[in-house]
Write a structure and sequence with these properties.
The protein has one domain (about 5-405). It has helices spanning about 5-55, 60-70, 70-95, 100-105, 110-130, 140-160, 165-185, 195-230, 230-245, 250-270, 270-285, 290-310, 315-340, 345-370, 375-395, 405-425, 435-455, 455-465. Helix 2 packs across helix 10, helix 8 (about 195-230) crosses helix 9 (about 230-245) and helix 12 runs parallel beside helix 16. By secondary structure, it is mostly helical. Its main location: membrane.
Amino acid sequence: MNLARSSVKLFLANVISAGIQFLGITFFARELGASQMGVFFLFQALLGMLAIPADFGLRGAVEKRISEGESPGAFLSSAVLLKLIPLTLIVLGILLFRSWINSYLGADLAVWLALAIVLQEAAQLAIIVLRGELRVGETAVLNVARRITWVGGGALLVSYGFEVEALIYSLLVGIALILVWGWYKTSISLGKPSITHVRSLFDYSKYNVVSSIGGYFYSWMDVAIIGLFLTQAHVGAYETAWRVTTVTILLSRAVATTLFPQVSQWDTKDAKKQIESVIHQAIVPSMLFVIPAFFGVLIFSREILTLVFGTEFAIASAVLIILTGEKIFQSIHIVFGRALQGINQPNLAARATAISVCLNLLLNFILVPTIGIVGAAIATTVSFAMNTVIHGYYLSQFVEIDLPYRQIGWCVLSAVVMSGVVLGIRSIISTDNLTNLIVLILLGAAIYGLVLLSSSVREKVFGNIGIPSSK
């Protein structure tokens, strides 16, 4: 597998996907408002939280075992059997408590939630199998297709008078599309399951589930707690700000996604130097966009939310700044975390995640009732910073971590120069309309890119996206 090529392919697909999602959320936010968007985000939050017991870390275990190359069919069939029991119990639980779920969501969506969890788990398993086969680049188009289906189908239904149900129905169709298309592309056939394969999967998943919990908690726990103490409008504004920040981490995710199966394969060959080299070279590309994004959001946070989504979303302007700053920590963590799991140390990744999850939960319950959605953003940022530090400490026990401080410094300097120029121009050009805002943002991006191209980062990043291809 060529890591650079796969990273670029996945990144470009993620950019397209994020662009489609951004346009969709912008349209839906303007048409439906913050409260209806809040209902949809709460639906997604419950779906994400239910995925924890439904999967129990099996996705990571399947990717790890299949990437090792031994008995992939037997591992796949064993994973399918392991998934059936928790999925059945979850669906029955949803139906049993559907009145409470409907009340929490603010709409009668419990039955659709039960269907969504089944479709989601089957679809995600197909994606994981492709990754385990070292075919990460081939998964890129699937995510784009899902976004197109969600936005296109949702927009069509909204035009016919549907409200939040439009987003739910189109979401389900998009997941179903991934399910069918993903399994069609996989080349592994189901083998004969065995107790040995089940135990092997469980030995990995029992630790990996904690890391999975951390991911879902990180994505959805703040939203779920906001839903308990505040209104659907607060949920809608907060999650919209969150979705804006996810654009900045696209390259980081592409790098980390391609990193895991290759590190896993090198680990089986005890290729320590290659692992150390790829971690070092992955850091700068992972941070390439998050640093200038933070400086840009410092300047334009209120304008972005007000002009793009509507005035009722401006209550999350401080949230947008804090969460964009948090993405700097995430860009490093995403490399450390996948590398630690790739060298078969899910227990340590689980320990780090457990600590940060507990801190996140505690801070959310303290800060959300007292200072509102800003408290949720602070809780997420503090807990994830700690998670990054602990992951880095554990990873350093096995491989040498050589952070490229000089190149990171150039990224920061380029962002500072960008900010100074943009602030100077902003004093002349008003940002009270969307056109001027877009022009200033594009101008800032161009300045950042030009300064960066004149530095030592150019060869490291633009030569091969920071990751050498495997041989």
